[in-house]
Backbone:
């Protein structure tokens, strides 16, 4: 029989334990554990949520990997065409983990109304375009239909629509500057088929999506000439390795760039979230451990007589230490239980009710996204339990200093 666990249980359920001097200190320690795990869960959920949401939005607009001409053009404008007929299109045969390959071509223009104007990037796409990303953010209308001989339908952001005071199905005029300085700009009319709102201000403020054939006509390209290819992956975590594989599979005149390489500042910024989360976790575990050490010392000092009696009856220091460590473990588990319940409730409320909003110009999202996995919850709880328990081993050595002959005298 594990008599140390038996004694620890008797102490926990005893009325004297609940009404003792150490009771408020124990409650503070439990509260510290609960608050610690709440803050850690929220930190992990918000940090991961921001990372996943921002990178998914960037991939939705730009693809995970872009294949373009090997030149010095670093802008969003497609200047030199490449042939659509490539060994890797429409499928990479020697690279696994590729979800889709889609053609695109970009053209800079201006949307004009009678009273205002807005600069835009006209992104031309075709029937192979994956609309999965925009399906989540479509607020009105539908996607353009590219299965007809010619379409003037476009997808426009709610940001641009609101600025120009437009509505769904309105006809808009777009002006595009031609490549030759001696040529007059081209005017085209388009119909707003759908309106989206991704909350990513960097792209929402200027992105218009339409038929790639419009860009080809404006640039005087043939139907076989495109601006580049966007590659969508099944797993974002493989982007670096897949980027190298894809780069080795394309021709020497082509260049592949991952969105991490195209937007290094954004990904360097979101990678800092991990450092912040680890710092918060370390601080919270340290604070919880200090509170538990205080609670354990009070528990031991409050039961000096019991320690003396157990020693007199032949119990070893190790056995008596186990009694108090079992007791402390119960307090840690109680704090973790309440902390998980409250923390997960807060995360679920934010996920479903979007209570906390953010400035999309700064954070690229309009509401605070949250994401947490089962494994994150498990490792946070196990890590907190183990580290707090290890921190209690050293202060429990005070038991070895208690002299049974002196402690029993005051019983």
Residues:
């Amino acid at each position: 029989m594990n008599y140390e666990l038996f004694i620890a249980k008797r102490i926990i359920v005893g009325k004297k334990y609940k009404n003792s001097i150490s009771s408020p200190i124990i409650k503070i320690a439990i509260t510290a554990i609960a608050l610690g795990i709440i803050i850690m869960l929220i930190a992990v959920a918000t940090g991961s949520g921001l990372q996943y949401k921002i990178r998914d939005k960037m991939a939705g607009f730009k693809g995970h990997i872009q294949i373009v001409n090997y030149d010095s053009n670093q802008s969003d404008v497609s200047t030199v065409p490449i042939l659509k007929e490539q060994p890797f299109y429409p499928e990479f045969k020697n690279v696994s983990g590729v979800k889709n390959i889609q053609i695109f071509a970009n053209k800079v223009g201006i949307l004009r109304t009678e009273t205002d104007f807005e600069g835009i990037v006209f992104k031309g796409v075709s029937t192979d375009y994956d609309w999965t990303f925009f399906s989540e953010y479509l607020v009105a209308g539908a996607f353009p239909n590219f299965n007809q001989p010619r379409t003037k339908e476009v997808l426009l952001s709610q940001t641009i629509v609101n600025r120009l005071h437009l509505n769904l199905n309105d006809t808009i005029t777009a002006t595009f500057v031609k490549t030759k300085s001696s040529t007059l700009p081209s005017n085209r009319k388009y119909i707003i088929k759908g309106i989206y709102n991704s909350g990513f201000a960097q792209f929402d403020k200027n992105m218009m999506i339409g038929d790639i054939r419009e860009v080809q006509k404006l640039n005087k390209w043939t139907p076989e000439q495109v601006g580049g290819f966007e590659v969508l992956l099944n797993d974002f975590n493989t982007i670096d390795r897949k980027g190298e594989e894809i780069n080795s599979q394309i021709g020497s005149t082509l260049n592949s760039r991952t969105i991490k390489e195209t937007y290094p500042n954004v990904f360097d910024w979101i990678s800092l979230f991990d450092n912040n989360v680890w710092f918060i976790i370390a601080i919270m575990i340290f604070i919880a451990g200090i509170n538990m050490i205080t609670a354990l010392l009070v528990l031991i000092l409050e039961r000096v007589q019991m320690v003396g009696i157990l020693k007199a009856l032949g119990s070893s220091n190790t056995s008596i230490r186990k009694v108090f460590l079992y007791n402390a473990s119960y307090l840690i588990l109680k704090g973790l239980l309440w902390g998980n319940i409250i923390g997960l409730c807060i995360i679920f409320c934010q996920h479903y009710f979007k209570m906390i909003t953010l400035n999309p110009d700064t954070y690229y999202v309009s509401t605070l996204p949250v994401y947490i996995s089962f494994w994150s919850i498990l490792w946070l709880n196990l890590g907190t339990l183990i580290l707090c328990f290890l921190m209690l081993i050293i202060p429990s050595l005070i038991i070895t200093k208690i002299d049974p002959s002196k402690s029993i005298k005051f019983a």
